[in-house]
Amino acid sequence: MLCWGNASYGQLGLGGIDEEIVLEPRKCEFFEGKRVRGVGCGRRHSVFLLEDGAVYTCGCNDLGQLGHDKARKKPEQVVSLDAQNIVAVSCGEAHTLALNDKGQVFAWGLGSDGQLGLSNFEDCIRIPRTVRSLSEVHIAQVACGFFHSLALARGGQLFSWGQNKYGQLGLRMQGASVSSPQVIQSLQGVPFAQISAGGAHSFGLTLSGAVFGWGRNKFGQLGLSDNDDRYFPALLKTLRSQRVVYICCGEDHTAVLTKEGGVFTFGAGGYGQLGHNITNHEVNPRKVFELMGNVVSQIACGRQHTLAFIPSSGKIDSFGLGGNGQLGTRSTCNRISPAPVKGCWRAHTDPVPMEVDLTGLSISEVEQNFCVKRIYAGGDQSFAHYALPQVKGQGAEVKGQTKGCQRHIYTDDSPPVDLRITRPDGQIYTLSDDLIQKWLNHSHGRLSPEITNEIDLVFSSASCLNGSFLSGSNPDHYSTNSKCSGVDINTARLFYHRLIQPDYPQISQIVAACLEKNLLPRLSSSPPDIEALRLYLTLPECPLLSNPNNYTTLTIPFAKAVVSLKDAPIKVLG
Fold first, then answer.
1. How many helices (H) does the chain have, and how many strands (E)?
2. Which residue stretches of the chain have pLDDT < 50?
3. Which of 90, 92, 70 has its CA nearest to residue 80?
4. Residues 6+ positions from 374 with CB-CB distance below 8 Å
5. 134: helix, coil or strand?
């Protein structure tokens, strides 16, 4: 792990160093030999998640944000989470959320605005606690703003809690903080791929690249052409055709990554954090032209700085506030356009010499050839997780002083993370080939509670069905509009006919019950987006609806839902 930026509270995890700021990437020795899965950065603290599910924290602990009482300069394990397999972490200004493999959320740190979701407004919680009100739902993602929190469930619901001064909870009201998670009702039925939170603004990104934003908008950080705060989610129409695949937020600015590897930024630009070579604020998403010609595969936002990773060269560019060294440029100057982070970077595709003459070289000099896996930023700190070449040799001193000594260098050869590729973990359930096959394989005896629960989740959720059957081989679902539904009807027909057949009566019964009791009664006459209309096209392909035994329980209620749609959605459906 490499780190740079503000070290004054120990948030870089470098131990007891004298410097307050680190101006260029420096190795964090603590992580040598450990596999890092994720990093969360608060204003003055950092959280590290290892592949084995262990959580380590360091930095300021005034408000319990480390989840332990150990020394704060070096990462220390959060022992109370030892029994959990944690799969994701996120940090706010001074609170932390962790998510385990069973979809349960743990919270600790500052709780004065209800941002811990523990149904109270305690000043601080020093030991991680379960967010009990979410225990009935399987959470797939968590995101922290400064004083608010978001969670996306596997069943598609989006929850928010915490401070609501600027409408950042999206609950159609502003002002009073909310201390227990609430469903954002106005987004019901929309299939989300990712959630993200800034200082006091929030975003949801759909599986087809539509972007919804809400909350504080003083600097245009919602990208809606004005500076008015939004108390409920609003669609960024300008980004609909850009095939957005990832969003990250700073305190008052936002960066988005497109499928093609382009970057758009908007919001506060006073320190250059938008990368447009000026310090203006931008109320509309604007392409970072200084990155053009490079395909970007990762972006990360700190409080007032931005990082972009370019896999073809293996280099990281940074721009924005530099006063704490967070740009990694060996200077404390702000940068208003992308500048390379200092370091000897190696692209993953560069040939690795299998035999290198190490005469006169120390191992550390050989290792200074970093192949970045993943970049992270938050507060005024930045991190890069890299693959370490392993040096092997026989009969040689460490310094390689044996004349003509040769050693082999091997490197971790997995490619860097590409945020443009959707990974299955952390996503809502959608009907896929694999999922259906899994259900069918387990349906000969009595269905297990796990399988029953999965079927239940998918067919009770408009979001899950609306996110299913997306044009697979042809990603034209990124161009969803009133002329293009984005779904592949043939796939829907095939999947439904595989799933609903006499050989698997148990599955048919569960699906029918879910549609009748949960899905159909909850369909809205005014869906929030075009993407929430897809199930009206695909559900009639389900054989259950053409079975006369189900006319009164399924087919007629479905027909009623269609004819009760308001004029605009009916027109689109037509």
1. 9, 31
2. 355-366, 392-410
3. 70
4. 36, 298, 384, 385, 416, 417
5. helix
Neighbours of 406 (CB within 10 A): 14
Q: Considering the domain 232-425, what is its CATH architecture?
A: 7 Propeller (2.130)
pTM of the model: 0.94
The candidate with the shortest Cα–Cα distance to 92, out of 58, 61, 65, is: 65
pLDDT digits (tens, 9 = 90+) for 146-165: 999 999 999 999 999 999 99
What contacts 241, CB < 8 A, 6 or more positions away? 479
Q: Which residues pair with 382 in a beta bridge?
A: 4, 377
**Amino acid at position 201, single letter:** H
Strands (E), 396-549: 406-410
Return the pLDDT at 220: 98
Q: Which two tokens stand for residue 323?
A: 């006063």
Quote the pLDDT of residue 16. Answer: 85
Residue with the two structure tokens 């055709």? 241
Which pLDDT does position 101 carry in this prediction? 97
CA separation for the pair 248, 555 (Å, rounded): 42
CB-neighbour burial class of residue 446 (10 A; exposed 0-12, middle 13-18, buried 19+): exposed
> DSSP label at 72?
S
Q: Which residue from 141, 122, 119 is spatially nearest to 130, judged by alpha carbons?
A: 119
Contact 425, 432 (CB under 8 A): no
- For 385, list phi and psi in degrees, rounded to 5: -90, 130
CB 365 within 8 A of CB 357: no
Using CA atoms, how far apart are residues 56 and 554, in angstroms rounded to an integer?
Answer: 51
Q: Where are the domains of the chain?
A: 232-425, 433-573
CA nearest neighbour of 95 among 50, 136, 69, 57: 57
How does pLDDT run across 257-275, given as a tens digit for each residue?
999 999 999 999 999 999 9
Residue with tokens 């299998």: 354
The rounded distance, in Å, linking the Cα atoms of 7 and 126 is: 22
